[in-house]
Design a protein that fits this description.
The chain has 343 residues and is α/β, with parallel strands linked by helices. It has twelve helices and eight strands. It has an eight-stranded mixed beta sheet, sandwiched between helices. Helix 1 crosses helix 7 and helix 3 runs parallel beside helix 5. The termini are far apart.
């Protein structure tokens, strides 16, 4: 019998559009009390908004990381929906396998055919380092509907703030402490993860970046990812008081500054068309100016060893991303001249 007869549809969830639309269903929480995250943890807020956006007919898978350890204390869990742990590098395969298992059970008549959201989340270790191959493979399977969310706190925060492929240039981590001889120990730029998955997987119909400081934008992106046929990927930036060394009170403000300074642009790619959203849209399409990156960097202890030349270098790199890239924060090159015209 043809497999196409058993394609599972996607849930069509209403979009928020603006923050004051969220309270319509604010009482519905599917990530609630019972977790053990740090004070000011933005990743926990990502989990809450993600679960709120998806709703009750959802299965959530979590790979090893902060949001696994902090949410599975013995006899205590914040998850109101079904949840399963998977290994650090297997976020993508777990999502594909769960979506495939649901379809098989529905095809065999062992469960009612209905759209069930499958969300698999990972930290930057699982989504930007160790899990890249698995996520890439899962995004190749256009027949399975699921959403992968990478909550990025820019370090291996669960194991004492080791450097990751998402750590920004110059950051002080337990693996890259500044010293008297070498002030800057981390000399690599942050991986452009969302663009990596968007550009490299042409049959993946939805890829986006998000930030919990802009909750309506994030909720809408989660719902768009779930409503899109096939796999989807959302990359969020999550300020971390422990790893970034700041007062937990300022988590929300740092999330805003990451976008306002242009360090982390908000965008979404839908069916091959890319658009910027929120503050980033006004910076790209309008005349809103970016704030100096120094405001963002000086608010974090992990950059307190910076001197003037370090701030200038960081600002110059962000300016280059906005002025020289084909698409700010997405495509780091432009189309060159026809070599035949140079002869």
């Amino acid at each position: 019998m043809s497999e196409t007869l058993y394609q599972i549809g996607t849930q069509q969830l209403p979009l928020m559009g603006k923050v004051n639309a969220i309270p319509q269903k604010a009482v519905e929480e599917y990530y609630t009390s019972g977790h053990r995250t740090c004070q000011g943890c933005e990743s926990a807020l990502i989990m809450r908004l993600m679960a709120k956006a998806a709703g009750p007919r959802t299965i959530i898978l979590g790979s090893t990381g902060c949001m696994y350890v902090a949410n599975t204390t013995y006899y205590s869990t914040p998850w109101v929906v079904p949840w399963m742990h998977t290994q650090l590098g297997s976020c993508g395969p777990a999502a594909t396998g769960t979506a495939a298992a649901l379809r098989a059970l529905m095809r065999k008549g062992k469960m009612k055919q209905e759209p069930i959201n499958v969300i698999s989340f990972c930290g930057d270790g699982g989504g930007i380092d160790m899990g890249v191959a698995g996520i890439s493979a899962s995004l190749m399977h256009a027949e399975y509907n699921h959403l992968i969310i990478c909550y990025d706190n820019e370090s291996y925060a669960n194991t004492d703030i080791q450097i990751s492929g998402a750590s920004p240039w110059g950051a002080n981590t337990t693996f890259t402490p500044p010293g008297k001889k070498f002030r800057i120990m981390h000399t690599r730029w942050k991986k452009n993860a969302a663009a990596l998955y968007a550009v490299g997987h042409t049959k993946c119909n939805y890829v986006a970046t998000g930030d919990a400081s802009y909750p309506a934008d994030l909720i809408d992106k989660v719902r768009k990812g779930l409503a899109t046929s096939g796999p989807a990927f959302v990359h969020t930036l999550d300020p971390c008081p422990k790893g970034w060394d700041y007062d937990p009170f300022y988590s929300h403000k740092l999330g805003e500054l990451a976008v306002e300074t242009g360090i982390f642009p908000l965008w979404e790619m839908t069916n091959g068309r890319l658009t910027y959203t929120g503050i980033s849209a006004r910076q790209v399409y309008g005349n809103r100016k970016r704030r100096p990156v120094r405001e963002y960097l000086e608010a974090q202890g992990r950059f307190h060893h910076f001197i003037e030349e370090d701030y200038a270098y960081f600002q110059a790199e962000v300016d280059k991303m906005w002025n020289d890239w084909a698409m700010p924060g997405v495509i780091p090159f432009k189309l060159g001249e026809d070599p035949a015209k140079k002869k």
